[in-house]
Amino acid sequence: MNTYIITTLSEHPELFDSAASWFHNKWGVPIEEYLKSMEACRVSSSGVPAWYVILDTSGKIIAGLGIIENDFHKRPDLTPNLCALYVEESYRNQGIAQLLMDHACTELFSHGIETAYLITSHTIFYERCGWSFYGMIEEDDGNMIRMYQRATQPSLYDAEKS
After folding, report:
1. pTM for the full predicted model
2. Structure confidence by residue, pLDDT tens digits, 31-78
3. What does the H/E/C string look like for 75-130?
4. Which residues are CB-neighbours of 9 under 8 A, at least 6 positions away?
């Protein structure tokens, strides 16, 4: 099994442009929004926002995710939100997404945040990764979507997976 190293973007601002472009190409959110959030993570002491990527041996991004206050929904009380999780197809089914989520949750816990949330239609995948259904919530565009939650304390989400 390969060992993947997670890069915390707040510690590597030289990667902001390439990471913002990579996330934009996966999700269609404007590059400027990613750059603004990445810049905010440099000065945040709360752990939110935060951005993480994994690079291959040539320095190309193969996976990434973000932690933001709100992922385009009308429940600002359900925060922070995991967002933009993506693993390049040729690297899937190797535990990389789980590695990124576990790392992000551990980082949130270190900042005193006990629960993380996400919105998704990929229900089976996230349930296998230790997320539990919270309920249906309204997105900013008025559509309803499934909200999931997960404890950030490592011992709690490790127990949920077993």
Report:
1. 0.91
2. 999 999 999 999 988 899 999 999 999 999 999 999 999 899 999 999
3. CCCCCCEEEEEEECHHHCCCCHHHHHHHHHHHHHHHCCCCEEEEEECCHHHHHHCC
4. 15, 16, 19, 38, 41, 50, 51, 52, 53
